[in-house]
Design goal:
This protein is an all-alpha fold. It has a single domain, classed as Up-down Bundle (Ferritin), CATH 1.20.1260.10. The protein has six helices and no strands. α2 (12-42) runs antiparallel to α4 and α5 (121-151) packs across α6 (153-160). The N and C termini lie far apart (58 Å). The structure holds fe (ii) ion (FE2) (2 copies). The site of one fe (ii) ion (FE2) has 6 residues, from α2.
Length: 162
């Protein structure tokens, strides 16, 4: 116990934040992967490709977070993964994705502030990079959800075929 604590070069609070964020990334990875598969199955190839890009991005993010945890002398022990609700329609998928992104962003806000306070600027910069990507994802989700609202789900989905 004592030996492993002395090997920890980073602040345990930072390592805990990184692990918590890792659990969001791994949850996002599985959720977007499933949504990509469902979109493709329904014939919405454009959406499927976009979801593919998001699950692939989460893998890269997770790898960076894991590398940082190990660099700090910590262990990658993300919290139990959240259950994935396989949303039954595209609008529901996008709404679920938006909820997850929002939760991740709330977590990041506190994590970035703690890294700043604890003077771990490398971890802070990494999490700021993650937050920028979450913001981009959120912007895209909001555009799609606004389109669904404007066109109605039927017309929106019609426009996604082919
Ligand atoms: Fe994410
Ligand atoms: Fe991410």
């Amino acid at each position: 116990m004592k030996r492993s604590a002395s090997r920890l070069r980073g602040d345990p609070v930072v390592v805990a934040h990184l692990n918590e964020y890792l659990s969001y990334e791994l949850t996002g990875h599985r959720q977007y992967l499933i949504h990509a598969g469902m979109c493709r199955h329904w014939g919405f190839e454009r959406l499927a490709k976009l979801q593919d890009a998001y699950w692939a991005e989460e893998v890269q993010h997770a790898a960076k977070i894991i590398a940082r945890i190990l660099m700090l002398g910590g262990a990658a022990t993300p919290r139990e993964l959240r259950p994935i609700a396989g949303a039954a329609s595209v609008p529901e998928q996008l709404a679920l994705d938006r909820t997850l992104v929002m939760q991740a962003m709330v977590h990041l806000q506190g994590a970035i502030a703690d890294c700043e306070r604890l003077a771990d600027y490398v971890s802070r910069d990494l999490l700021v990079e993650m937050r920028d990507d979450e913001e981009r994802h959120l912007d895209w989700l909001d555009i799609e959800l606004a389109l669904i609202e404007k066109l109605g789900p039927k017309n929106y989905l019609q426009s996604q075929l082919g």
